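Illustration 12: Xaa-Pro dipeptidase.
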Amino acid sequence: MAMPDDALLSLQTDHLKELQARYESALAEHGYDSLLIASGAAPYRYGDDQAWHFQGYGPFLHWTGLAGREHCWLWIRAGHKPVLWLFEPVDFWHANSPLAEEPWRQFIEVRSSASPEAPLLDDPESLAVIGDPALISNIPGEKNPEALLRDLDETRVCKTPYEIECLAQANRLALAGHAAAREAFLVGESEFGINLAYQQATGQREAEAPYHSIIGLNEHAGTLHYQYYDTQPPGQTRSLLIDAGVRFRGYCSDITRTTAGPEESHFAALIHGLDRLQVRLCDMVAPGVDYIDIHRKAHQGLAALLSATGLVTGLDDEGIVEKGITRVFFPHGIGHFLGVQVHDVAGKPTPPPDDAPFLRLTRRLEPGMVVTIEPGLYFIPSLLDPLLEGELGQYLNRELIGRLRGCGGIRIEDNVVVTDAGSRNLTGGCESRNTKVAQI
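Figure caption equivalent — predicted structure in token form:
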């Protein structure tokens, strides 16, 4: 990946100053003089000497961006430089990754440690320690105090300019991967081959990505978190759904695109219709908007699309929503917060409403928040079949649904930051996608 420019590095220093102020305020509010943050470490698999892949604890990444660094410790105190103990064992089995000489190292004191153990600190009575309970249980100080953790989560809700630019760069890198994945689809590659094309274009191993890429051809696109990659292409390539991101300096992108195969004009029309709806939903992102309203607007738009394309007949759009038909075609929420975690924290200060049980964000939008907007339209047998067999089945176009089932489904997802005046689409909106029918 390209080296960060001076402007980004300057923004990082400002970011750390802002974090210091936010954390000092939270510590004072809850009566602590200092805070020790554990980066964490990957647990070993049961009955094995191999560990799971590790990406890091959210608050540690919020400060350092050092994903994948295990057994590190960050000490925060009011009026003092933060201190980072970087685990660098003397080891001939593994390499120690060197830190770049960047301006943030003038703000945080970095100490090398050959031991994975926590540092010994003065005055543990006024110390809070946060991280994986399995790794901090024997450390003096109060472990994972709930009230403090809630306030620290709040420090991640409104992103600093540095965080937003990291998220923007994560989007730019991922879009190169999505373009390569689409080209691989167009030449008839398998799911596995498409994944390799994505990794090659992004320059990031799957294990380093923010989440396991979802790459589904044909009916596999109808499984929301489809987790396997067929190594052979299907006999007839009807559709591609790819949901994949990149991690940049700790920050995640989360982008989804869907492409229709040849001779799938009905499916291509659905993609085009959902694409137009998604753009309108992105345009709704602005300060003061209730995110739940965006979710409900998605269902209204989906009802209009189902009606316009003949998938549902005999009901007006309001009836399609009220009878729960749109929830069968679109069973998940419209999106979530995004940051150093793909589903970033503090999204649900109140539970989701009954008509949106899987919604991960129930807040009113504020400048600095970064959200995903990801409507979908799926043909999921476990949801569709009961609908078809019930009283509401009379309103569904069985013949058309039968023809489209093999295409699996559609999801289109962008990452959007709330600005003072409206929003900025970090993914690029319309310019970043191609919804034409593939010519394979």
